[in-house]
Design goal:
Length: about 525
């Protein structure tokens, strides 16, 4: 368990970008830059190029200026009435950041990280570090696709799960009023958290006095978010399309997701990893739901929490299932936690436990580092004379991406690397790089009209090295192109049209050999 926490902290540390901090976790997209709050734009956070970004960028701006009625705030949000429902994290970040935009933005980006660490400690109450089965359940919650997606995108799901778990712990300790208050706070983080109020319904089987107490506790769970929604209804314009597609007829969303994944698996020569990860998430959620629906235990509050979310699964629409690996894993995090707590121990349940926690297979990919503003490094040796050979990128290159092992760039078609030799004499250049594409194609590297390298591309990365090439004084343009030249069509998980990707491009420059 200590190794798992260390890995998580190390992975998060890789998301730090000099001068940008952890703002990359917020997922600002360049499509919304012009609508950002002035104080956010002044901070110059990390922005994803050619991207809409993700939901965290809107909640982060609510944290910087937590006033949904402000016209500038409303302009900065894509759907103000929808985003402003989940105000607990923005309020907390604004308070901890002392209202200073630079501090608030960093605090907001890291709230999920702090929540993850707190949840890791709290889960030891149910899964102490004794035995492989308990460790698996602990890992299954903390490294689930849903929870890590919340961390990686600075969303409300992780902190709301922490509050839900804390509320359930208070209930187990026979502190129902504290439990109700905690679940009420969870509802302000994510409104569906109030469904956990079914944990109190066991009181309906007791006396009228107990029934009345249960009703009051239920009101305490629902009241904070109900009052806040009532306020928003009177200060914000109501968008009719906000949240459209989140709900649908029973089982239509999950069935559509299963059919779409099956179509990809059956028809593709190469199945991308994200398709397998999406399938793993779907399997895990269906297994969890079946466990609750086929093994009723009304007297167990954890069963009641899991069962109500199993019902919620049936009504989730296509918008929640779409994408990689899909928002359903985040929405149904309470069902995952309830599943691992309520599932009996023993050898006969091992297969169910493994299948119910199958989404952990995407953990390493979900926690991949945020791209940085430092260029895809082209390394050149220092040449006599003190000047440095410089390199820039031209053409349809996309933003640099990072993994645990290196840096890469996708291109949408023929693209150039411009090399500037500031010396008055020719030098010798050699390139080394990895390259791949989604579909088989042949790649070429030209200097001017001279072909210096060619190779066959496929999904698996291949590493190449050119021979020595004369680098004349001034600017040289090195052009990467492919046959076919047309990029692959955008996919469900990536709206970019991509032709090829270059990894860890390295340029070695030296003096020419003596005659």
């Amino acid at each position: 368990m200590a190794a798992a926490v260390a890995f998580f902290c190390w992975a998060i540390s890789l998301c730090y970008i000099p001068q940008k901090g952890f703002s990359g976790l917020v997922q600002f997209g360049d499509s919304f830059v012009e609508r950002q709050l002035p104080e956010v734009r002044a901070l110059n956070p990390y922005v994803m190029e050619h991207s809409m970004g993700y939901d965290g960028q809107f909640y982060a701006q609510l944290a910087v200026r937590p006033d949904p009625a402000d016209p500038e705030v409303q302009r900065a949000l894509d759907t103000p009435a929808y985003r402003a429902r989940r105000m607990l994290l923005p309020w907390v970040a604004h308070l901890l950041g002392a209202g200073r935009p630079a501090w608030v933005l960093q605090v907001y980006a890291l709230l999920n990280v702090a929540s993850w660490l707190a949840l890791a400690a709290l889960l030891w109450r149910w899964f102490p570090p004794v035995g492989a089965e308990r460790t698996l359940r602990w890992l299954g919650v903390l490294f689930s696709a849903g929870l890590l997606a919340s961390v990686r995108n600075a969303l409300a799901d992780g902190p709301s799960l922490l509050l839900l778990a804390a509320g359930m712990r208070w209930l187990e300790l026979r502190r129902p009023w504290l439990a109700a208050a905690t679940l009420g706070l969870a509802g302000l983080a994510r409104e569906t958290s109030v469904l956990a109020g079914v944990a109190f319904l066991d009181g309906l089987r007791k006396s009228w006095r107990d029934w009345g107490r249960t009703c009051v506790q239920g009101v305490l769970v629902v009241l904070p978010v109900a009052l806040w929604l009532f306020y928003l209804r009177h200060v914000l314009p109501q968008e009719g399309g906000a949240g459209a597609g989140n709900f649908a007829l029973p089982f239509s969303g999950v069935c559509n997701r299963a059919v779409s994944l099956w179509t990809v698996l059956r028809g593709a020569d190469h199945v991308p990893f994200y398709t397998w990860y999406s399938l793993a998430l779907l399997v895990s959620l269906v297994v969890q739901a079946c466990f609750f629906l086929l093994r009723p235990r009304w007297s167990d509050p954890w069963w009641r929490v899991g069962a109500i979310h199993a019902v919620l699964l049936a009504f989730l629409g296509d918008a929640v299932w779409a994408g990689y690996p899909g928002a359903a894993g985040r929405v149904l995090l309470p069902m995952l936690l309830a599943f691992n707590v309520a599932l009996p121990y023993g050898r006969r349940w091992w297969a169910v436990c493994l299948l119910g926690n199958l989404s952990v297979v995407s953990a390493i990919d979900t926690l991949r580092p945020v791209g940085g503003y430092d260029e895809l490094r082209v390394v050149s040796d220092q040449i006599g004379g003190g000047a440095q050979v410089s390199v820039s990128f031209s053409g349809p290159w996309f933003q640099m991406e990072r993994s645990y092992w290196g840096r890469s760039r996708w291109s949408g078609g023929p693209a150039e690397v411009c090399v500037e030799n500031p010396h008055g004499r020719p030098l010798v250049a050699e390139w080394s790089f990895g390259i791949n594409s989604h579909t088989p194609r042949e790649a070429f590297l030209y200097v001017g009209e001279a072909l210096v390298w060619r190779g066959q591309l496929e999904w698996n990365q291949r590493n190449f090295r050119t021979g020595p090439v004369r680098l004349p004084p001034g600017e040289s343009r090195w052009r990467f192109c492919t046959d076919p030249a047309e990029p692959d069509a955008p996919t469900e998980t990536d709206p970019r049209a991509l032709a090829f990707r270059v990894y860890d491009l390295k340029l070695e420059v030296s003096e020419p050999p003596a005659p």
